[in-house]
Amino acid sequence: MDIDLSPEELAFRDEVRAFLAEKLPEEVKHGAAMSPTVFVEPDIGQRWNAVLNEKGWLAYQWPKEVGGTGWTPTQRYIFEKECALAGAPNLTVLGLKLVAPVIYTFGTPEQKAKYLPRILSGEDYWCQGFSEPGSGSDLASLQCRATLSEDGTHYKLNGSKIWTTHAHWANKMFALVRTDASVKKQAGISFLLVDMNQPGVSVRPLLTLAGDHEVNQVFLEDAIVPVEDRIAEEGDGWKLAKFLLENERGGSCHSPKLEYDLDQIEQAAADEPDGRGGKLADDVDWKRRVAKVRLGIQSLEMIELKILSEVAKGRAPGPQTSLCKLLASNLRQDVDLLAVDLYGTAGLQLDFARPFYGDNAPEAIHSRGAQVASARYLNSRAWTIFGGTNEVQAGIIARTVLGL
Q: What is the pLDDT of residues 279-302, one digit of tens each?
């Protein structure tokens, strides 16, 4: 695997860097840095999305024929890495990176024409209706029922979805529902696009340990979905879900963002006392901890680049994406624990006022980095759960990668 960039790729990297230096608003960058949640808040994320959409770079992972950039896998990787190293917020992943590929890969021409432009413009903000009470890691056991009307024009949905990120902001939800209970559980699932702004949909907030409102429980009571908002055929939902989750687990490069956050921690350590008259950055044990995490991030990057090389050859990401998901989740928690330990008792502050950015942000104790550290650490505990738990990923790796 050749990891050296070509002259054309180096020129593209320089173009991205120049764009970020000129167009990334400082308040957006600060807002991203002070957001303790896993997903960026819409006021930050949508503003950055609009900047990229104006440039024509928002749909950088999409094929050109459906409104994307048509970039190569290497260009996409360069773009993600440079955005991460510049401190840009993550893009709105649920619409852009999860449901959009399902729509442009499996949707009808009418579905593509209706939904893809609205994802780019921000008119539609999506949430994901997969997990249910009692159906988390065993997603195939979901019970949310979709009943087709006698005239075949629409479905009625009844059931509940849980841990639904940003459902309180979303006007659309892509959902897995059971359309046939008489067949094997994986075979009776369909993929529907649900309008959240209707009487049959209600949203209840679920606050995290850190006090953030990021996830919700969604209740569906005779909610209506026109049959033209079903993606593919009835019973194809499990196939589409596997396609989507493969994108979620391996469609992004995690290592640059982890590297950026670790760099910020190392820089801050140069100003933090070690309790013995020196600076924490010079403490041997601290340096050993940082080095261990950095080596883990560099190893993850090599795996991500290996997957990139396979995608560049026209091959699917494959089950090795589970390895990326598992490693990235553990490293995310390692980085956030370092941030808490960096600030000592100041890193234990847990202010429940939100947001931590903007004119009405609460006053920080010690520093802004210390203010966000504990909340971010608590929220990142979810990394080893969402998108498939670490235990699920280990099982996939054992069966499909190691052949055990």
A: 999 999 999 999 999 999 999 999
Q: Which candidate, 36, 83, 101, places its Cα nearest to that of 260?
A: 83
Separation of alpha carbons 59 and 132, rounded Å = 30
| DSSP per position, 355-372 | -SSSTTPPPPSS-HHHHH
Q: Is the four-CA dihedral 349, 354, 359, 362 of positive or negative sign?
A: negative
pTM comes to 0.91
Please choose, from the candidates 306, 374, 309, the residue with its C-alpha nearest in 3D space to the C-alpha of residue 340: 374
pLDDT digits (tens, 9 = 90+) for 320-346: 788 889 999 999 999 999 999 999 999
Task: Determine whether 20 is exposed, middle or buried from the number of CB atoms within 10 Å of its CB (0-12, 13-18, 19+).
Answer: middle
pLDDT digits over 149-160, tens only? 999 999 999 999
Residues 6 or more apart from 286 whose CB is under 8 A from it? 269, 274, 280
What is the SS3 assignment for 87?
A: coil
